[in-house]
Structure formats: C-alpha cells, structure tokens
C-alpha cells in the first residue's frame, strides 16, 4: 500500500468520528429544536381527554340514530325545561346550576328511562352515564360537606328533535328538524346534534343558537385547547377550535355567563349559526 493511500484512509477514519465539541453543539441544537416544536406539535395532536370526549360523542351520536331508527325516523325529544312531566319531554332531565340540587348529580336523569319516563330517552342505547360528561369538565357542586362532579356537560342543538323550537318560539324563522329524513339543508355532515357546552352556560338539555347576526345565546365549551367536541347528524365527530377569544371566556367557579350576548364580527358565532340550522 502506498503512503498516500494509507494517509487517505487514516484521514477518512478520523473524519467519521465527531469531536466532543461537535457532539455538544449537536445535542444543544436538537434540544432547542425540541423546545421550539413541542407547543406546535401539542396543538395539532389530540389530547387523551379530547380522544375520550370524541368517543363519548360517537356513542351518543349512535344512540341518537338508533332511537330514530326504532321510532319511525322521529328524533328524540329535545324541549327546553326539566323533562319531568308529560308535554315537557326532553332527551335528558334536569337543570344544571351550581346549587346543591340533585339535578346536578343524578345520572338517572340521563339514562334511567324506566324511572324517568319523560326523559333519559337515550338511556337504553348507551352503556354508561359517563358518556354525557366530557372528561375535561371539572365543574363541581357542594352537597352538604361533599363536593361532587356534575353529571352532564353536553347539550343538544335546539333546532333538532321532537318538540324542538326556534329560539324565542318564532315559527318559520329557522328550520327545525323533527324527523331524520327532514335533514337536508344543511346536509347531515354539516348539522351538529350534540356538543360540549361551557360549564358556566349549561343548564337544561338544549344548546340555543339564533339566526340574529352576531348574537351568542349559549356558550360552547373550550376544554380542549380552546375547542369543543361535536357530533353531527351523519355520525361523525370533531373537535372544533374557536378563533375569537370572546367565545371562550375564562371565569371563576360558579360564575354563570350572560345569555344573548352581542359579539359583532365573531366568526365563531357565524360558524355555529351555519351548522345549527338554516332558513326554510
């Protein structure tokens, strides 16, 4: 072997190894990149709570469809109010607030249709009452000396269901869907049925939207990095993120949000209105 060949192989072998300075520089660069990318990756990757929320919504969407299939296409009752008497049937009973009322904690109002014949209509189709509560909902109430979680964080679109009415009771202003085959505009893939409602807005089982421009009646939840879970009439679920900070206010515990809030230019309000109903 010539001296020049030996010199080249020795040089090449040496160049395959990193110096300590190079290794430290590379490690520091990779660490810095990880810190910079972590927030962006976290924002695009669904959390475990969001995944469980979607699973809950998917089960309720399937139950909503099975109820209609078993009742000649009629959609489940969805009236405002407590759902505790004939003529006031609702898909869930109760009226949530931050008092010690059993409405806040009694899961029978959600699933025990035999005991509550004017509510809990989806109970025969779901396995557990836990699907009615988003795992990210941390709202509680005090009963005696015990703090308990509230049993529900989901509401149903006020334009969908037997007994449903447009906001304000005005007839003909917006479309109301009482049978499955009536859903055409917006198409089932664009009409939301059930969603996470803000813990400081939720009360009865309906989520109200109005066709009055820039008015937010009820507030959607923002549990999942300023986003809420939805199930649509075709059965698909999604986590929808809000862009306007007015849609996702931060309040103290037990502080209820006002209804019918004007929010000029809020594109989130426009999105809710477009996906809740249409004009006939």
Largest sheet: 5 strands, mixed
Helices and strands, in N-to-C order?
HHHHEEEEEEEEEH
How far apart, in Å, are the first and last alpha carbons? 91 Å
Chain-averaged pLDDT: 87
| Strand-residue proportion | 5-15%
E-strand count: 9
Question: What order do the strands of the largest sheet run in, or round the barrel if closed?
Answer: 5-3-4-7-8
Return residue spans where pLDDT drops below 50 for at least 5 consecutive residues: 40-46
Tell me the structural class: alpha+beta
Q: Name the helicity range.
A: 25-40%
Radius of gyration over alpha carbons?
26 Å
- Number of continuous helical runs: 5
Question: Which word captures the global form?
Answer: globular
Count of the separate structural domains: 2
Give a brief outline of the structure.
This protein is an alpha+beta fold. 27% of the residues lie in helices and 12% in strands. The chain folds into 2 domains: 3-42, no CATH class; 47-276, no CATH class.
How is this structure best described in words?
There is one protein chain. The chain is of the alpha+beta class. It has 2 domains: 3-42, no CATH class; 47-276, no CATH class. 27% of the residues lie in helices and 12% in strands. It is built from 5 helices and 9 strands. It has helices at 3-15, 20-44, 48-70, 108-111, 267-276; strands at 140-143, 146-149, 154-157, 192-196, 206-207, 215-216, 227-232, 237-241, 261-262. The strands form 3 sheets. Strands 5-3-4-7-8 form a 5-stranded mixed sheet, with helices on one face. It has a two-stranded antiparallel sheet with strand order 1-2. The protein has a two-stranded antiparallel sheet with strand order 6-9.
